[in-house]
Design brief:
The protein is α+β, with helices and mostly antiparallel strands. The chain has a domain at 4-64: Pancreatic trypsin inhibitor Kunitz domain (Factor Xa Inhibitor, Irregular), CATH 4.10.410. The protein is built from 3 helices and 2 strands. The protein has helices at 49-56, 66-69, 73-88; strands spanning 19-25, 30-36. A two-stranded antiparallel sheet has the order 1-2. Strand 1 (19-25) and strand 2 (30-36) form a beta hairpin. The longest helix has 16 residues, at 73-88. The termini are far apart. 13% of the residues are buried. GO terms for molecular function: serine-type endopeptidase inhibitor activity. It comes from Amphilophus citrinellus. This is BPTI/Kunitz inhibitor domain-containing protein. InterPro entries: Kunitz_BPTI, Kunitz_BPTI_sf, Prtase_inh_Kunz-CS.
Length: 90
């Protein structure tokens, strides 16, 4: 189960405080430093890389699930259709 905060894009916010913070970057699957303005933004905003990783560590590795290994239904339909055509053509 992924933490929804970790899927949010980094938001600097409208203020100009220039505070170094960390956010989880889904494309890089790691915590990345960014500059926070000091107000607004969102909750994908951590004081340290360690805390960011503690919250978002499950997303730092790509997990292959059983569902990902199951062929899509369209493949089964194609295989069945191909088998029928082959069996019927002999």
């Amino acid at each position: 189960v992924q933490h929804p905060v970790c899927t949010l894009e980094a938001e600097t916010g409208p203020c100009r405080a220039s505070m170094p913070r960390w956010h989880f970057d889904m494309s890089q699957r790691k915590c990345v430093r960014f500059i926070y303005g000091g107000c607004a933004g969102n909750r994908n905003n951590f004081d340290s890389e360690e805390y960011c990783m503690a919250v978002c560590k499950r997303l730092s590795k790509c997990h292959v699930t059983e569902a990902a290994l199951t062929p899509p239904p369209s493949l089964f339909i194609c295989l069945c259709l191909c088998c029928r055509l082959t069996a019927g053509s002999s």
